[in-house]
């Protein structure tokens, strides 16, 4: 194994300029999925990928997903699916990425033009989509090309699924994956997604869990229209007063969720799981730096990471219909809608969570003995995901990280959601690995998004090395 990889790595280094040019071309296509006007650019980006893949000898299909829900004048951009290699003796690995990007405007505060890849003296490559997710997507293509140029046999059959609506809720993708799981993706042995980040900037990680999210609204109404407090204050029961009292009963200052029964749904912490936290490269200063303050709840690393990854949290997001502008308007809002969400973890079933939330909110409201009306409802729910980090897909990736970076990867989870992860797991029944390329400072979704040249080039090596190890790793389910 090692001899082939040395040749591959040398080839990647030799082609680094070419790979950066490929990224420059991709970043130059402003494939912003949230912006209707940019839809032709999103389609053009999918076409760019398809052309590059065909030039590398892959079989490519651009599958239409129909009209965009609620925007029937717009076609969804096609999913680009591709196959490289069809050797029955080799394993088949399915990889996913997305070719659309978040919006980006100079006015937002970018220091460089967001769609011109700009490399600074520290090797930071600034540009929208550089790290999320064009760099990683091109990583797979670059890996194929470097194998070809070095004359090294590609170790697996590679199935690729690249979508163009990820930053807009992956419209249409779930149905597509479910339909293709037994067709185009049928022979996949394992799945790999490169669309998340290292926990810090120096140590690579493999990610084996994500929290889910259940998002609720509490609507409280009473008066037929907004009222003036000088006229009606003291004479009418006020929806805003009720809402504040209900919302304040959901969570306390230390993040403790006050809904009875919710913590009973959480999987107990085992010693084995606990042992994964000690070595993780993370300090409280990392937290304070990203918070921009020292207002953390816990003083230690383990508890902080567990609170982010493996325990639920409840956040209050806002109140629709409330007076929120500067100044001192004396309005009594007639109807207010409070928004909050719960980040869910194993083994919380979303429907069980809903039931506890409804019962509790209705109970608290009833205890106020208000004449107003309260309606609590779910806006959307996405389930958590957790995989075994001892599965052969993960152990293979761990060896690839050690080979490329010279360290054992941290095994991490994330506090947020990547819903497609669970979709792939459920649809294919195969293990899904999250193998990030970029680091925590990449500012995906933010201004001045970047990917470090080092992470890109070593990342191309990593993706290729992973394919070599996963081709040979004994198939233990872990
Ligand atoms: Zn992404």
Automatic annotation (TrEMBL):
InterPro entries per record: ArgE/DapE_CS, CNDP/DUG1, Cyt/Met_Dipeptidase, Peptidase_M20, Peptidase_M20_dimer
Keywords, ordered alphabetically: Hydrolase, Metal-binding, Metalloprotease, Protease
Pfam families registered for this protein in UniProt: M20_dimer, Peptidase_M20
Segments forming domain Peptidase M20 dimerisation: 210-362
Family, similarity comment: Belongs to the peptidase M20A family.
PANTHER family: BETA-ALA-HIS DIPEPTIDASE (PTHR43270), CARNOSINE DIPEPTIDASE 2, ISOFORM A (PTHR43270:SF4)
Protein name: Cys-Gly metallodipeptidase
Species name: Cryomyces antarcticus
Organism classification: Eukaryota, Fungi, Dikarya, Ascomycota, Pezizomycotina
Gene behind the chain: DUG1
């Amino acid at each position: 194994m090692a001899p082939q990889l040395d040749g591959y790595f040398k080839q990647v280094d030799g082609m680094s300029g070419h790979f950066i040019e490929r990224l420059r071309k991709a970043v130059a296509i402003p494939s912003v999925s949230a912006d209707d006007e940019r839809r032709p650019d999103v389609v053009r980006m999918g076409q760019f990928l398809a052309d590059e893949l065909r030039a590398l000898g892959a079989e490519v299909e651009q599958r239409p997903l129909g009209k965009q829900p609620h925007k029937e004048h717009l076609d969804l951009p096609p999913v680009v699916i591709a196959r490289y290699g069809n050797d029955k003796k080799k394993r088949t690995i399915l990889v996913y990425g997305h070719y659309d990007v978040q919006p980006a405007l100079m006015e937002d505060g970018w220091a460089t033009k967001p769609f011109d890849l700009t490399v600074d003296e520290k090797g930071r490559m600034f540009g929208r989509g550089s790290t999320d997710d064009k760099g990683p997507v091109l990583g797979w293509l670059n890996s194929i090309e470097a194998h070809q140029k070095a004359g090294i046999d590609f170790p697996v059959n590679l199935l690729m699924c690249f979508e163009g609506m990820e930053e807009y809720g992956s419209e249409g993708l779930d149905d597509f994956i479910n339909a293709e799981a037994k067709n185009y993706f049928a022979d996949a042995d394992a799945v790999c997604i490169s669309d998340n980040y290292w926990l810090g900037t120096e140590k690579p990680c493999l990610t084996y869990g994500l929290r889910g999210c259940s998002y609720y609204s509490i609507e409280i109404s009473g008066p037929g229209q907004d009222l003036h407090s000088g006229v009606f204050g003291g004479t009418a029961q006020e929806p805003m007063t009720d809402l504040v009292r209900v919302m304040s009963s959901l969570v306390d200052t230390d993040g403790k969720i006050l809904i009875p029964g919710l913590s009973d749904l959480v999987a107990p912490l085992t010693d084995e799981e606990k042992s994964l936290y000690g070595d993780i490269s993370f300090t409280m200063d990392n937290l304070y730096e990203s918070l921009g303050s020292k207002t953390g709840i816990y003083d230690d690393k383990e508890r902080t990471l567990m609170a982010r990854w493996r325990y639920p949290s409840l956040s209050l997001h806002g109140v629709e219909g409330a007076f929120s502008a500067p100044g001192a308007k004396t309005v009594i809002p007639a109807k207010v809608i409070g928004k909050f969400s719960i980040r869910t973890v194993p083994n919380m079933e979303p429907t069980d969570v809903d039931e506890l939330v409804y019962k509790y909110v209705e109970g608290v409201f009833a205890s106020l003995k208000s004449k107003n009306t309260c309606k609590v409802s779910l806006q959307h729910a996405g389930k958590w995901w957790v995989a075994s980090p001892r599965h052969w897909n993960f152990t293979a990736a761990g060896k690839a990280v050690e080979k490329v970076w010279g360290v054992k990867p941290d095994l991490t989870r994330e506090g947020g959601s990547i819903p497609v992860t669970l979709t792939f797991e459920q649809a294919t029944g195969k293990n899904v690995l999250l193998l990030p390329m970029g680091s925590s400072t990449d500012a995906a979704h933010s201004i001045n998004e970047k990917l470090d040249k080092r992470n890109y080039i070593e990342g191309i090596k990593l993706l290729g090395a992973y394919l070599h190890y996963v081709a040979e790793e004994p198939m233990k389910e872990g």
